[in-house]
Amino acid sequence: MARRLAEVGPAGQGETVLIVDDEPSVRMLVTEVLEDLGYTAIEAADSVAGLKVLQSDVRIDLLVTDVGLPGGMNGRQMADAGRERRPDLKVLFITAYAENAVLGSGHLHPGMQVLTKPFVLETLASRIKDLIAET
User: Fold this and answer.
1) pLDDT in tens, 20-43
2) Ordered domains of the chain (ranges, CATH)
3) Which of 20, 26, 97, 107 has most Cβ atoms within 10 angstroms of its Cβ?
4) Residue 66 Cα distances to 13, 57, 103, 118, angstroms
5) CA–CA separation, 114 and 124 (whole Å)
């Protein structure tokens, strides 16, 4: 994995990414990709914990979240609530095809993208870099 990710190249300059997913293996995988790219990762297992981080003063340059989350709100609702405090928050939704309907395809705000599972790590890495680099 590291060899192929190296082709995407490190990019981090102190940026912090919040990963919200109820699957520990997914959080671990995304964290590994982020660290390989030079970003700092913060993990949350549900929408309540994720929103708590988004409403704090912690620097967050990108939110990577599953759409289907426990905790009372889905990933889209959590992202929208987080954007009330952080209007420029960039978001990458990771979703299974069926969950795509929750996002209301075509109704994503600027700075939001969707990555459908399963995905290759290089695609994840380049999407993360592109979103963080977007101004």
Assistant:
1) 999 999 999 999 999 999 999 999
2) 12-133 (3.40.50.2300)
3) 20
4) 25, 22, 11, 12
5) 10
Name the pLDDT band for 104 (thresholds 50, 70, 90): low
CA 15, CA 38: separation in Å to the nearest integer? 8
Q: What letters, b where the CB count within 10 A reaches 16 and e where it falls short, cover 23-59? A: eeebbebbbebbebbebbbbbbbbbebbbebbeeeee
Q: What is the pTM of this model?
A: 0.87
- Three-class SS of residue 19? strand
Q: Where are the alpha helices (DSSP H) in the chain?
A: 2-8, 24-36, 47-54, 75-85, 121-133
- In contact, 89 and 79? CB cutoff 8 Å: yes
Task: Name 110's Cβ contacts closer than 8 Å, sequence gap at least 6.
Answer: none
